[in-house]
Specification:
191 residues, alpha/beta, 8 strands
Length: 191
Amino acid sequence: IQNVGIDMVVLANNHIVDKGEKGMTQVFKTLDEYEMPYVGAYRSEEDANTPRIIEIKGIKVAMLAYTYGTNGLFLPKGSSYKVNYIQDEKITADIAAIKDEVDVVAVSMHWGPEYVTVENEEQNRLAKMLNNAGADIVFGSHPHILQPYEKLTNENGQETHVFYSISNFFATILTVPDTMIGGVASFEITK
């Protein structure tokens, strides 16, 4: 995936703890082997508190990532890493903590019901919360199907580009034909 231009992987998703601590250890080992940056799940508190900032042609972009859950599976108490779950207060605090250090804040949200072509009320609520918190771009995942794009502008003029779901980048679900169509969010950032 690095050879086709992927610069960072998002680990905040509902399957990240499917294989428990051993699975998470292997994920980090593989990412280290390929020197692949990641966001959304971490090996330690220190790792979790290290901002994910990429500089692209002089533009600093912060990447944050959250998931709605992990299929009822949880890591043992006292684990040395954690998964970022969708929690309004945490997301708002994370955006506030990094907003002044970067030009753009991008947030990956693993949200919404699977195989539904439009966003639901909770996705709309969260998108508005992200807009009010200062997110500039939101990339949605989990539905495995394309959902709409929307630009939100709050009363302070903060614009947030929301891609509710860009479907599956690589895999499809053969029994659900709409999963065979994916999207790539493309935009230009001008500083």
